[in-house]
C-alpha cells in the first residue's frame, strides 16, 4: 500500500496528510529517538542533544544518529563520506535494489550501508518501507520532499536543505551538523578543493598554459532537446573547482543549471572537450533512441571538440563529495594527468 501520491518526474512528490501518519505508525514507525540520557540530567554523548537549523525550521537531534535515512542521493553521499550508517535510500528505477557501485566501493566512503534498503522512488516513497528502516535521523531537501516534512517528523528528527545540486558543499555541512562532524566536513572539503586545483594545474600546464574549454551534455529524453550544464550546476561547480573554462556555447549568465538545445543548436555543445552523459531510463522513456537521433544529425559530426562518454551516475546524479572525487578521477584520466590521490 502507498499513501504517498507521486507526481512523477514532472513535479514534486507529495504526501497524504493524517492518513499517511496513521499508516506509518501502524506499519511500525519507531518515532523520534528515545531519551538516551544517563538519568541524571547529563548528556549521553558530547554535543547532544543538539538543535540543527535548516530550511524547514529547527530540529532537535537528541542523540548521535545511528540509523540515518537519506532520501536524496546528495545526503546518501554526505552521510557515507562522514562515516555515518545509511539504512535506506530512494531510487530512480523500481528494479534498483542497492546503492551504486561508485558509492559502495569508493575509498572516500568511510561509512556503512550494509543493511540499506530502497524505500521507493525518489518521487514516490513507500511509507511502509520508510517506517521499516526505523531511522533516528531523516535527511532530504525541500525541493524533493518538503510537502512530507510534517509526516517525516512523526517518524524521526528530520533535517532538510532547500535544494540539491550546486549547493552540495553546504549540504555536506548540513549533514555534518546533525552528525556532530562539522570539523570533519571542513577537512573533507579542503582536501577535495586542493585535489581539484592540483589536477587543474597539471591540465593547464599540459595544455600550454591555458585552461581548455569544456562542456557537459546530457541525454535524458527531454522533448526540449539535449541538456547543456551551466556553471551553476553540480558538475559545473566541479569543473570550476578544477579551473576549466566553459565552452563558448555554455550560458554563463543564467541562474538555471541547464539549458536545452534542439538538433538545430547542437553546435552550442562544442568545446575543446565535450563530456556526454546519458540518463539510464531502463529503456522506458526513449532516452537511447533520442540520443541516437541527435548523434546521427549532420551537425553532431561537425563538433570539433574531443567527445567523451562519462558516467551519468556520479557526473550528474551523484551531487555529493564522493561523486565529486569519482568525477575528478575521470577528469584526470581523460586529460592524462596525475589523479592527485
UniProtKB/TrEMBL annotation:
It is found in: Cell envelope. The keyword Transmembrane does not apply. InterPro entries: ABC_transptr_periplasmic_BD (IPR002491), Bact_iron-sidero_bind (IPR051313). Its main location: other. Residues 67-339 form the Fe/B12 periplasmic-binding domain. Residues 171-202 form a coiled coil. Residues 1-18 form the signal peptide. It holds the Pfam family Peripla_BP_2. SUPFAM superfamilies: Helical backbone' metal receptor (SSF53807). The keyword Signal applies. It comes from the Bacteria. Keywords: Coiled coil, Signal, Transport. Belongs to the bacterial solute-binding protein 8 family. This is Iron complex transport system substrate-binding protein.
